[in-house]
J domain-containing protein
Amino acid sequence: MAPAQYTEDYYAILEVSPQADGATIKASYRRLARSKHPDKNQNRPEATSEFQLLQAAYETLSDPDLRRIFDEQYPSILKRACSSNYSYNAHGSRNTPATSNKDPVCKLEKAVADIQREIDDMETQMRDHELQRRKLDGDLFEKRRSVCNLNSRLATLQTEEEADRREEASRKTWFAYFFGPRLSAKEEDERNCKRSGRRTGQLVLEWELAAPQE
């Protein structure tokens, strides 16, 4: 089956550069489809045909195989456009051809339009990068706050552990042995259980702080 023969500049219709990626083409199509839908342009008889042309452009450029075929024909499409001296207006339809030969002017206008589309694409990418940077800044803030909370909890456990060690040392003196209060077996078990839980919590916090942050 012979490949389709294209005659329209679909890049110009979608207002993107020939280097635009799929996401840029899709975003431009959605923007133009909202503004050029026939329901919003009922006072323009040609709105339906222009919208159909916009759809055809998107269906072609969003399909990798069709876009490859279109790109192969694109130089000849541009050549015909310049030789005929037509361009596309804000509604996506062709302007009336000029009566005089303006081939150099046409080429320059086309070059300017392509560069402007590339600038638009770059600005879109810059906005996307800025949004991504803000998201990373937010994630970094949350990670740092989490580390601060873990350090605070760890410091509390370490303080309690140090107090336990001092108390244990004081209980082992001769004075405490003869005159200090004696703990019952139940109280001793509860004290040891609490100390064990605190040490386990301390180890967990130290592990969380040492683990790499995702």
Q: What stands out?
A: The first helix runs from residue 10 to 14. The chain has a mean pLDDT of 79.
